[in-house]
Specification:
mainly beta; 49% strand
Length: 413
């Protein structure tokens, strides 16, 4: 089980290049160069039943997160990937030179389902080149340059047990399931960046990155400054277990369009902090994580209104968002693991929201709970059974809920 978790986390976690110890096999040349590969194939059969969207939902008037926008009860069966898509990754490692270990990693993340589950001819699997970066590591620390998982809320998703399962199942149209994205943390995304990480300082590491900026709202016209992210992490071995904790933060500003209906030409900002701690002992793993910030959105960090959930209010001011995830898992036998978690993503009413009189009511809370059982047939193959519940609540009190089941399998190499 530990190897499965390490390989899967290594496939998505780009805090450093994946070491050859997790690779299925390594090909080495006489001159010291090495080529290795690792990856995952995951397939889940899912069933989702969602209550009708509140009256007035039409895809624009009332944002329904990734739950169905149908005004009738919605039911759907699908065969798809889970939260983590299938992965095919390659690492090329150079010979150690002048005390520097350097490597290049390319990660390809394909989905398997037909788009929207609506046609057997609509077979685009969304092949996503999420990772393409190089690292150079020495006594000074590590430099990472390229496209990789962003720092802010990165560990929040990496420690979620549904990273390796399905979690909240959305309506068709997405390339993965949600896990707890929007239901306990925001999706940090993969992005172009330059990152420096210090050496291990008694279990403490500090990382700092300069990132490509994102739109903060639909009215963002200019992004003249970078997005800055940082993370402080701590890891330690305990008697019979281990402990890790982290703090991360991000900041970015952007200029609104001169033709925006509210605050034309003014600046918006996204600022946030995230945190978490996880302890493992005697087969038990306990996790608590969370975040808080302004101008972040409700699904992905800096939505830019792409999901209909504005990071800013109708007056063009940043809304305040926060969320948390609590989780417990237990290794029941060497091959069977059980777990449960619960998370919320919330958005406070702004002064303008309190005035009312707008075209639609913004989202107030998204919450989700997941219970899962995993069985490892061997060190390569894992089976998963999972139930998840999700509910959305709007500022006007309207609600929508969803129940879903997922049965799946994952193959690691």
């Amino acid at each position: 089980m530990k190897r499965l978790t390490a390989v899967a986390a290594g496939a998505i976690m780009t805090l450093s290049a994946l070491g050859t110890a997790n690779a299925a096999f390594v090909i080495g040349g006489e001159n010291g160069w090495q080529f290795s590969t690792d990856g995952i194939v995951d397939v889940f059969s899912t069933y989702q039943s969602t209550s009708p969207a509140p009256a007035g939902a039409d895809g624009t008037k009332r944002f329904t997160s990734f739950l169905s926008g149908s005004t009738e009860q919605y039911q759907n069966f699908g065969v798809e990937v889970g939260l983590l898509p299938s992965v095919v990754a390659f690492t090329v490692k150079a010979p150690t030179t002048n005390g520097i270990d350097s490597s290049v990693r390319i990660g390809i993340y394909p989905s398997i389902q037909n788009k929207n589950h609506d046609s057997r001819f609509n077979t685009s699997p969304n092949v996503d080149f999420r990772e393409i970066f190089y690292t150079a590591k020495g006594a000074y620390g590590e430099l990472l340059a390229g496209r990789a998982l962003n720092l802010y809320q990165g560990k929040n998703i990496l420690t979620d047990m549904t990273l390796l399962t399905a979690g909240v199942v959305p309506a068709p149209g997405t390339t993965t399931t949600l896990g707890h994205i929007g239901y306990g943390y925001l999706y940090t995304n993969f992005g172009p960046q330059l990152r420096y990480t210090t050496p291990d300082l008694g279990g403490v590491k500090v990382a700092f990155s300069i990132n490509e900026p994102y739109k903060i709202s639909a009215d963002t016209a200019k992004t003249p400054t970078p997005r800055i992210e940082t993370e402080i992490s701590y890891a330690s071995t305990l008697t019979g277990g281990n402990l890790q904790a982290w703090l991360s933060a991000m900041y970015q500003s952007a200029t609104r369009s001169d033709t925006a209906a509210a605050r034309p030409g003014a600046d918006n900002h996204s600022v946030g902090g995230a945190y978490g701690a996880q302890v493992e002992f005697s087969g038990v793993s306990l996790l608590a994580s969370g975040y808080v910030g302004e101008g972040l959105g409700m699904i992905s960090v800096q939505d830019g209104d792409v999901f209909g959930s504005s990071s800013t209010d109708f007056a063009g001011k940043e809304r305040t968002q926060f969320g948390f995830l609590a989780q417990a898992t237990y290794q029941l036998t060497p091959t069977v693991k059980i777990g449960a978690n619960y998370g919320q993503t919330r958005q406070l009413k702004s002064d303008d929201d309190k005035k009312g009189g707008h075209a639609y009511s913004p989202m107030e809370k998204q919450e989700g709970a997941v219970a899962m059982v995993t069985y490892n047939l061997n060190k390569f193959i894992q089976f998963v059974a999972e139930y998840s519940y999700a509910q959305n609540t709007w500022q006007d009190g309207a609600t929508q809920h969803s129940n879903s089941l997922a049965l799946g399998t994952m193959y690691y190499w």
